[in-house]
Design brief:
Shape: elongated
Distance between the termini: 10 Å
CATH superfamily of the largest domain: Multidrug efflux transporter AcrB transmembrane domain
Strand content: 5-15%
Strand order of the largest sheet: 2-3-1-4
Number of strands: 10
Radius of gyration: 30 Å
Number of helices: 25
CATH topology of the largest domain: Multidrug efflux transporter AcrB transmembrane fold
Oligomer: single chain
Structural class: alpha+beta
CATH architecture of the largest domain: Up-down Bundle
Largest sheet: 4 strands, antiparallel
């Protein structure tokens, strides 16, 4: 649908003379395109070189927790050598028990071979006096323990390299004793297997995401060159961000998942921003505007929408700094960096590239698709068929769509969070299967509560008494399982007591055991002696993280929602628009939460998605999903409302502006959402359940946001509110004009008599 001459003149008059930041950046870039393109390439290369030279500082395990568990982890890291612990499971296949000669001979053979293996120290047999090794109650299983010497931070090899020798020894022992199951599990062996698994997964994700994104862009633009432009901008933005994370990680160490999150977010926003900009420039050209005027119009409108969207996303991500956890801080640093670079590239190098290409951006037409020139000038027929009934019956549409989202959000009322542990890892890995067998033979042994007793003001004798009393009290309680083991540091100032607890680590029984340990047993046994005790471990870590979230989540929500409200208020100079935007985004986030809980916590579609439910959601996921989804959903909201406000300022009524604005932007929003959904859905195919939750949650939220929210609820509610959408109290007239209302338009507005 083409606009009439009067509408076109209104549009041109409102764009001419625009002086907003995005418009100025676009003009400079188009006039100095060689400098802009070369400058961008130099920036990307320098970022990669600097990052490679400095290296990336990863977040240490002892710093990743929160609360009391983190204090205990740090005390252990300071007092004990960082030798990774390894365990060999010796388990009878034919009913033999540990008191029989054949069983003992197999165990002795394991001990003997390990003692002669390179990179193995402190081998302990379950039969030796005072040994930390254990035998199961039914006598069918035994554990042989040993350590891998810590190679040190400056060594050329890692513990994962050193564990290869004992793994080979254990494999040969398994072949030599076919009547026994002889398998290894431990810090280094598990880390090695998981690193290889995750590396393979992410390589597949990276290799798969780029061609899928390219295919969607080809379908969206119908031309090879136009499809490559967003992909190249996103790829270079991600590369530059990964390089800059090197120096930034020296201040804020990065979680090992941060780089994957940067890739995910960078590809999504980089492609989105480029698509918004490119689509508007092509649309202006298709309507007969000259190349320079079209580029200036795209800079003044879509460019400004990109800037506002990027700032909104960055503000949302900044909320993670208030979460009080190092993992969230590293995610915030990574995502803010890549979003800022994507915005910078969209406002600077993208106009230069489009100016250099001109109409050649439509080169490489894809056969059988509508020519690029034609598709840029027309509205989406599919969205027109959806939107027209919505606008005719806004009340019914609002009730049905809103009700559907509320139903989808119901499962979130039973949300249960847990720190990711072994049970969240891929079950097809041999090392995880070994862990499951150890857990079955020795309940609670692999997820013990670790009581870290520090000497504090106590004497050596008082510390020993405290440890003795604590052990007796624990062994007398029915909330804990044998064996209880104790290890003292070399200077005898710190003791670590491993206390296997009942339950699965995150159920009520496990949390009750933790509460008894912290609130009753330790105050009665350790505190009177003057020593200090903190509890860590899987259950303690989950408990402390959940308690932290209870206090910090309201702060993060208030920060994100408050700043988003202020930004949208100033951008659209309306108090209704930001309130409605926040409510709609919360609806989509709540529905996505509900879907994640329904699938992963309640255990639906396990066979389809290839996972086993742990009965809980990964602890960091809900907060991270909120800030990420809220920020990304604002992309579409700002982009669509920018066009609606532009048409409204150009003289159209609210209802007509909503209809035309959404129809004009529907195809590019659909394509942008399709890119996000495809990229996020790839993560649902990865092995670890936390990444499956991440991928499904994001893909579901974007799908909901791009369809139900933008296609139904947004136009329906805007139609119902009419001119109240643009209401701004007189008391707020002092607000700076940083957004859509900044551009001068015809006064007074002339409302058309028909659409």
């Amino acid at each position: 649908m083409r606009e009439g001459g009067e509408d076109r003149r209104a549009r041109r008059s409102s764009i001419k003379g625009t002086t907003n930041l995005a418009a100025r950046a676009g003009r400079w870039s188009a006039r100095h395109r060689r400098k802009a393109i070369i400058g961008w390439l130099v920036f990307v290369v320098l970022a990669l070189l600097v990052g490679g030279a400095i290296g990336t500082e990863e977040l240490q395990d002892e710093d990743a927790g929160v609360g009391e568990a983190r204090e205990a982890d740090q005390a252990v890291a300071d007092a004990f050598p960082e030798n990774p612990d390894e365990t060999v499971l010796v388990q009878s296949r034919d009913g033999a028990t540990a008191d029989q000669p054949a069983f003992r001979a197999a165990v002795d053979d394991v001990v003997r071979e390990l003692e002669s293996t390179e990179s193995v120290v402190d081998v302990e047999s379950p039969y030796s006096a005072g040994s930390q090794g254990v035998i199961s109650e039914d006598g069918s299983s035994a554990l042989v323990t040993f350590e891998i010497p810590d190679p040190g931070d400056d060594a050329e090899v890692t513990a994962e390299d050193l564990v290869e020798a004992p793994l080979a020894t254990v494999a040969s022992l398994s072949e030599a004793h076919p009547e026994f199951r002889i398998e290894e599990f431990g810090d280094a062996s598990a880390s090695k297997a998981l690193s290889e698994s995750f590396e393979d997964d992410f390589q597949k994700a990276e290799v798969t995401s780029l061609p899928i994104t390219l295919i969607i862009l080809l379908l969206a633009f119908g031309a090879v060159v136009a499809a490559l432009v967003p992909l190249l901008l996103a790829a270079t933005a991600v590369a530059a961000a990964l390089g800059l994370l090197g120096p930034l990680s020296q201040i804020w160490p990065l979680d090992q998942s941060a780089t994957s999150v940067v890739l995910l977010v960078g590809l999504a926003v980089g492609v989105d921003y480029s698509m918004f900009y490119l689509r508007r420039e092509r649309e202006e050209r298709a309507r007969g505007n000259e190349a320079v005027a079209s580029l200036e119009a795209a800079a003044a409108t879509s460019g400004r929408a990109v800037l506002v969207s990027g700032v909104t996303v960055a503000i949302s991500m900044a909320g993670m700094f208030l979460a009080g956890a190092s993992t969230f801080t590293s995610f915030a640093v990574g995502t803010i960096t890549v979003v800022a670079i994507a915005v910078l590239g969209s406002l600077t190098v993208l106009p230069a590239v489009l100016s250099a290409l001109g109409d050649r951006v439509n080169k490489g037409r894809v056969p059988f698709l509508t020519p690029p020139e034609e598709r840029a000038a027309r509205d989406s027929r599919i969205w027109a068929a959806i939107l027209d009934p919505v606008l005719r019956r806004p009340v019914v549409s609002t009730v049905l769509a809103g009700g559907l989202l509320l139903v989808l959000a119901i499962p979130v009322l039973n949300l249960k969070m847990a720190v990711p542990g072994i049970e969240t890892l891929p079950k097809d890995l041999e090392v995880i299967q070994t862990y499951d067998r150890i857990q079955a033979a020795f309940p609670g042994n692999q997820i013990p509560a670790e009581v870290v007793i520090e000497q504090g003001g106590a004497s050596n004798v008082e510390l020993t008494i405290a440890v003795h009393n604590l052990r007796e009290a624990v062994e007398a309680s029915d909330r804990f399982e044998p064996p209880v083991t104790v290890d003292f540091s070399a200077d005898h100032t710190v003791a670590v007591m491993d206390v296997p607890i009942v339950g699965d680590g995150t159920n009520d029984a496990s949390y009750a055991a933790l509460a008894e340990l912290r609130d009753e047993i330790i105050p009665a046994t350790v505190d009177p002696e003057g020593a200090e005790a903190n509890v860590t471990g899987f259950t303690a870590g989950s408990n402390d993280f959940n308690e932290l979230m209870e206090t910090r989540v309201p702060i993060v929500f208030a920060f994100v929602l408050g700043f988003a409200f202020l930004l949208l208020l100033a951008t659209f100079r309306s108090i209704v628009i930001p309130i409605k935007a926040i409510l709609l985004n919360l609806l989509s986030v709540g529905a996505a939460y509900g879907i994640v809980v329904f699938i992963f916590q309640e255990g639906h579609f396990e066979s389809l998605l290839g996972f086993e439910s742990t009965g809980a959601i990964t602890s960091w996921l809900p907060l991270f999903l909120f800030v990420l989804l809220f920020g990304l959903s604002m992309d579409y909201h700002v982009f669509i409302l920018s066009r609606v406000r532009e048409l409204y300022d150009g003289g159209l009524s609210t209802e007509v502006a909503v209809s035309r604005g959404i129809k004009h932007t529907a195809s590019v929003v659909t394509a942008a959402a399709a890119v996000m959904i495809a990229v996020f859905a790839i993560f649902a195919t990865l092995s670890a359940i936390e990444f499956k939750q991440f991928g499904v949650g994001l893909a579901a939220a974007v799908l909901i946001d791009a369809t139900i929210i933008r296609g139904v609820l947004l136009p329906a509610t805007m139609t119902l509110l009419g001119d109240w959408n643009w209401y701004l109290p007189r008391s707020l007239d002092w607000l700076p004009k940083i957004g859509i209302g900044e551009r001068p338009g015809p006064e007074p507005r002339t409302k058309p008599t028909a659409a």
